[in-house]
Design a protein that fits this description.
The protein is α/β, with parallel strands linked by helices and 217 residues long. Helices cover 31% and strands 16% of the residues. It binds zinc ion. Zinc ion binds next to helix 3.
Length: 217
């Protein structure tokens, strides 16, 4: 009598646990869909965004509304063809993500609400080995984010679709494979898409980077 009454009770308990776990498994499925976590901060970067050309690993931008400007005068001005390449890479690789890119024709360079990304053409301060570089000029209100990121790429043909994809990825917090968790070979693992180094021949953002962006913003 006791045995008979306990058995069904145990089955009901098992069924309740299974139902309770199901939503957790769905959430974990989304989080683990990416091949690697290469969004700042990872277990291989510092935890806080540090400004400057020799600052921290690339930081996050402060939110999903990304305002960008392309230098249109002076030392770091982009030529029309280079502006077209920047726009093509943003349209092709970043507009399909959860980020919303907006061109800011009246950029803000100080105070709060600075324009998020400033694209420049030039080589000042770049290491000899680098075609381009992204750095944070002003940290944001959160330890992991940056209020204003600079992207500087050399002139004379260096501004390519793949390089714009690569540097724009850094400007929203994506890392090379050696700073990802788990680490991936930063030169050869094609799951890194255009975040491969060098990015030549790898113009696509790719599923891993998209999933990291969409899980963050
Ligand atoms: Zn890079």
């Amino acid at each position: 009598m006791n045995k008979l009454s306990r058995r069904p009770a145990r089955r009901r308990f098992t069924a309740m646990v299974a139902i309770a776990l199901a939503p957790l498994l769905v959430v974990a499925g989304v989080a683990w869909a990416a091949a690697t976590d290469n969004m700042f901060p990872t277990s291989h970067t510092g935890g806080a965004c540090i400004a400057g050309m020799n600052g921290s690993a690339p930081c996050q931008t402060d939110n999903k509304e990304v305002y960008f400007y392309m230098d249109s005068a002076g030392e770091y001005e982009l030529e029309a063809v280079d502006k077209q390449t920047v726009n093509s890479a943003i349209d092709g690789e970043y507009r399909p993500t959860d980020l919303a890119f907006h061109y800011d024709s009246s950029p803000v360079f100080s105070g709060s609400g600075e324009t998020d990304i400033i694209y420049q053409e030039g080589s000042t301060g770049l290491p000899d080995s680098a075609a381009g570089m992204t750095w944070c000029d002003a940290v944001g209100g959160d330890v992991r984010d940056c209020d204003q990121q600079y992207i500087r790429i050399r002139g004379n043909g260096y501004i390519t679709y793949a390089r714009v994809c690569h540097e724009t990825g850094h400007a929203v917090g994506l890392q090379h494979g050696d700073l990802a968790s788990p680490q991936l070979n930063k030169h050869t693992d094609t799951r890194l898409g255009c975040l491969l180094t060098p990015s030549d021949g790898h113009p696509d953002l790719g599923a891993n980077n998209r999933e990291n962006i969409n899980a963050t913003y």
